[in-house]
Write a structure and sequence with these properties.
The strands form 5 sheets. The protein has a 7-stranded mixed sheet with strand order 9-10-15-12-11-14-13. Helix content is 43%, strand content 15%. The chain has 998 residues and is of the alpha/beta class. The termini are far apart.
């Protein structure tokens, strides 16, 4: 009988520079080579554990979970044998991650081994590890690990130490490679992580995958190790079980939780409706029973507690996503859309046929979310609360940039590639580069060029590090270490090593507490209303808001720049085409613009039917009640669900599973074919003719993965209407709030220009009157100190504090009292904050003459006359652009020399169908792929009359696409095309407009 051994360790791509394979690729290779065990032993963490557990099950392998902790020479592998051991390893790994953050060393503090508990196995590699192994508790079995590349002389040197501590010798192959090319890819990746050239990277010996008997043969010189390998794996290793949910527990038992949830729901219904009608009561009971049946009671109570605490602190909460389909969510104030009034059904939120908890996503102002995190840690205990990590993987641009550095390309050469690649993958770039206008000047035939792209393609998609999920947080009732280690994050709160998908597998419920700048805008405006004691009840009445004349006019004209969710060029154009006049129409617009509806041609059909009811075709009788409101067009995810029920007889739960099956990246051709057959058979059984069934299926398939949930659209439409109403009534405060919350879809300059079109003027920063943020005085906005590049918050506070004591007499008085740093003083000078003391050049001379030494070059004489010369408006504008990132003293277009015979955006309708010339500042751009897989581009430009849209069809984009890549001011020539009285310039030529000379 042949002697065989199992591999003891594997470094996946999660070891960041020590491996390049996923657990799935390893499992596939192990199975093909006749192995029975899949080890997962990443460096310092359990990042890939869940993937490895699933891959092992798929390929019929036994999972062996562990973690490797590196020493300056060798290291120690730890494997848990029970839950206690697993949790202690998690704590040790967490401590190691914090050690790495606070220490320049990258090696494991050996004393952390003393914190191990339970039973497990430890493997020491190298002399340092062997000498440190006594720190492992006696309840653990320790081994002397011998990699396949260890020489006989090295083994003889280590053997006395192993005998001293009675360690069993263990054949311990360490895996790194499976496929051809893995070594090259690892060399590049290791160079990326070590910040050195690939030619200088040294890879560790061994690491290749061989069949068990071949591996055993490589240890024939030390037969005891083969027996040690058998003894090592004759052990029950432990890992967290998958598939069981672990909910935080609000009350002492489930019965108390159920009573509390019902009390809160019923009380909330009374507050929302005044009187609980039979319809409301029946809906509440139905939803409540499903929540109880699914054991999600505590999940709802945890979220309710978060919302209640937030509102108690005066913070607005906006529930997004499908949660607005739930009446209980509405009653608990997760959401603010009445699901009964707007026909939203619970099954889209919580499908009775699904086992996982529904998503309850809450939006907070970006200024206060961290406060809610702190509340949760205080409420539940620091050991039970953590933010969720997310894997940061190399995209095409990143892979090219990092590979280029490692291969020795200059930064200029790398920039040429990264600017040209856009959002393509490196593989796509290899194929398409020759046909892209941005790539005209790349060395396509160069061998070095091909080497760079092929190498980049090989490491593309690999994780490089972990970052924070957009807003996910978990509360682990038994402690985070029951499931995974933690590590430092960019917040004061740690993050989990496992990402959201792995955490869901081990049973932790993700709660999304999302940050949103528009809620910051709303909060700022609401604070202003509170200060004036003028909070109108209309803010809570969406129907009244939508029918208010200023709001109606703004919706119809697409005057929504700065208004969350409906300010993009595409949305503003759609609102104008629809002549949007109601809450339901605004909700529909938010979904009809989504890619699925638009690409299927149904967006144009919806607009046409909305504007001209005579074009509405006969709707299938089974769909009349479902799609009558949307003229026979499916525009919501809920439409897909209801249509599947009406046409094919699916239950609401089955139909939601169909929607989920058709969404996302996991859908395959075979699954889609089975779903289609099921749908068409159901339609046939309900008497629907084949032609109608096929057309309905086409519509479902074309957009079901992209359409919005109606509840989501409705929730955001509420906030959009509120902000639009506030914009029209308090425009100066609105735009100040938008700027203070750092804008939205557009650059801050676009909001300044839009504010001017609404009659608002701007004042530059001023040390005598400015605050940290923008402030409003009548219809004027003064720019705050926080917008000045280089000026710290501490300096801003010192300025404000000092001037409360007494005003600044002169420049020297100001400098001596607030002590700005050199870069801060430069920022203040260039932004105009010190202009009352004289021009910037004169101020520099004044400071230097009064205090020679540090801030500015030594003067050779008295200030020349040029230093005292007052700056022109154009000169101030250029200084503002550098210091503020925007121009507030004039319109940026004033800096450019526009040619004659250009028309303005507010004149476009008069020139419909004619060839014209237009110029403007580029404020937004979007590249799309046509049905023929050709690229084109949509541009949004701004001139003195407003904003306008320019379409570059593929031939024009191919010719001029490289010109518009970096933004700027452009001249566009072409024909004006009108679609439902909304004009667009169809470009035939694009060129840059030169800037005025000083």
């Amino acid at each position: 009988m042949k002697k065989t051994i199992s591999c003891g360790a594997f470094f996946s791509a999660f070891s960041f520079g020590e491996g390049v394979l996923s657990p799935e690729k390893l499992a596939e290779g192990l199975e093909k080579n006749g192995h029975l065990v899949l080890p997962i032993t990443d460096c310092g963490g359990f990042w890939g554990l869940v993937d490895a557990i699933k891959a092992a099950k798929k390929h019929g392998l036994r999972i062996v979970p562990g973690i490797f902790f590196p020493l300056s020479e060798g290291g120690i592998f730890l494997y848990p044998g029970n839950e206690t051991a697993y949790r202690s390893i998690c704590r040790v790994a967490s401590s190691f991650q914090y050690f790495l953050k606070n220490s320049p060393k990258v090696f494991f503090p050996i004393e952390l081994l003393e914190a191990l508990e339970g039973v497990g196995r430890a493997v020491a590699i190298g002399e340092m590890a062997l000498k440190g192994i006594p720190k492992v508790p006696s309840s653990w079995k320790s081994f002397w690990g011998i990699p396949e590349h260890l020489s006989l002389s090295a083994a003889k040197k280590l053997a006395p130490i192993a005998r001293q501590f009675q360690l069993t010798p263990l054949a311990f192959p360490i895996l790194r490679y499976v496929r051809p090319g893995d070594e090259v890819a690892l060399k590049i990746l290791k160079g990326v992580h070590e910040n050195q050239l690939a030619s200088k990277v040294n890879l560790p010996s061994g690491g290749k995958l061989f069949p068990p008997e071949v591996l055993a043969a490589s240890f024939s010189w030390f037969p005891e190790t083969i027996e040690g390998n058998r003894r090592f794996f004759d052990f029950t290793f432990w890992h967290p079980p998958l598939g069981t949910w672990h909910m935080p527990e609000i009350c002492r038992n489930s019965e108390l939780s159920r009573r509390r949830l019902w009390f809160l729901a019923e009380d909330g219904a009374r507050r929302r409706y005044g009187k609980i009608t039979p319809l409301i009561l029946n809906r509440l009971k139905s939803e409540f029973n499903i929540i109880i049946e699914k054991n999600f009671t505590d999940y709802f109570l945890v979220v309710q507690e978060i919302v209640e605490e937030s509102e108690r602190r005066g913070h607005r909460v906006l529930g997004r996503g499908s949660a607005a389909n739930s009446l209980i969510s509405y009653c608990l104030r997760f959401t603010h859309v009445d699901p009964i009034k707007y026909g939203l059904f619970f099954e889209r939120f919580l499908n009775p046929e699904r086992s996982s908890p529904p998503d309850i996503d809450l939006d907070f102002s970006w200024k206060v979310r961290d406060e809610i995190y702190d509340f949760l840690r205080t409420r539940w205990g620091e050991e039970k609360v953590a933010l969720i990590s997310t894997q940061v993987k190399l995209g095409g641009r990143g892979a090219i940039r990092e590979t280029g550095k490692v291969l020795g390309f200059t930064s200029e050469e790398i920039t040429r590639f990264t600017r040209a690649i856009g959002h393509l993958s490196a593989r796509e770039f290899l194929i398409e580069a020759k046909n892209r206008p941005e790539c005209k000047f790349l060395p396509h035939n160069s061998a070095e060029y091909r080497k760079l792209l092929y190498a980049a393609a090989r490491i593309e998609g690999l994780p490089t590090h972990f970052s924070l999920h957009a807003g996910g947080i978990v509360i682990a009732p038994q402690g985070i270490d029951r499931f995974c280690p933690i590590q430092p994050s960019s917040k004061p709160i740690p993050m989990t090593q496992m990402d959201m998908y792995a955490l869901e597998e081990v049973g932790l419920v993700k709660i999304d507490l999302l940050s949103q700048r528009s809620l910051g805008v709303f909060s700022d405006l609401f604070s202003h209303l509170k200060s004036t004691k003028n909070i109108p009840p209309i803010l809570d009445n969406v129907e009244e808001l939508a029918s208010a004349p200023p709001v109606l006019e703004a919706l119809e004209k697409g005057d929504t720049m700065g208004v969350f969710y409906i300010e993009s060029p595409g949305m503003r154009s759609l609102l104008k085409k629809l002549r949007c006049r109601s809450f339901s129409e605004l909700t529909a617009a938010s979904s009809v613009i989504r890619p699925g509806v638009a690409e299927s041609g149904m967006m144009q059909a919806y607009i046409s039917r909305h504007r001209d009811p005579s074009t509405i075709p006969q709707i299938h009788p089974l769909l009349e009640s479902i799609l009558g409101e949307t003229y026979g067009v499916m525009i919501y995810q809920e439409d897909v669900i209801k249509t599947a029920g009406a046409i094919a007889g699916f239950s609401l739960g089955e139909a939601d599973l169909l929607r989920r099956a058709m969404s996302g990246k996991s859908r395959g051709e075979s699954e889609m074919a089975q779903t289609r057959d099921r749908f068409l058979l159901g339609a046939f059984n309900r008497g629907v003719d084949q032609e109608s069934a096929n057309e309905i299926w086409r519509q479902i398939q074309s957009f079901s993965g992209y359409a919005f949930c109606k509840a989501h659209s409705a929730s955001y439409a509420v906030l959009s209407l509120q902000l639009l109403w506030l914009k029209k009534l308090y425009p100066a405060h609105f735009f100040a709030a938008v700027l203070n919350n750092r804008g939205g879809f557009y650059h801050r300059q676009a909001y300044v220009n839009e504010a001017r079109r609404h009659g608002i003027e701007f004042d530059p920063p001023d040390v005598h009157t400015s605050e940290i943020d923008c402030t409003v005085n009548s219809s004027r906005i003064q720019i705050g100190f926080s917008f000045i590049q280089g000026v710290s918050e501490n300096l801003s506070k010192r300025i404000s504090s000092e001037r409360k004591i007494s005003s600044f007499k002169d420049l020297i008085d100001f400098v001596s009292r607030v002590s700005p740093k050199e870069n801060e003083l430069e920022g203040l000078l260039n932004s105009g904050a010190l202009r009352k003391f004289g021009p910037p050049a004169a101020c520099r001379w004044t400071i230097k003459l009064s205090n020679p030494g540090t801030l500015f070059p030594e003067p050779t004489s008295e200030p020349p006359p040029t230093a005292k010369k007052t700056l022109s408006t154009l000169d101030w504008a250029r200084l503002e652009l550098n210091s503020l990132g925007m121009i507030i003293s004039l319109n940026p277009l004033d800096l450019y020399n526009f040619p004659q015979a250009t028309i303005r955006s507010n004149e476009m309708l008069k020139f419909s169908g004619k060839n014209v010339r237009m110029g403007g500042l580029l404020i937004a751009a979007k590249t799309v792929i046509t049905k023929k897989q050709r690229r084109m581009k949509f541009l949004s430009l701004e001139d003195y009359g407003g904003t306008f849209e320019v379409t570059m069809f593929p031939p024009v984009w191919k010719k001029f696409g490289h010109i518009v890549g970096d933004g700027g001011v452009f001249l566009a020539e072409g024909r004006i095309d009108c679609d439902w009285d909304v004009p667009t310039l169809i470009a035939s030529e694009i060129r840059r407009i030169p800037e005025l000379k000083k």
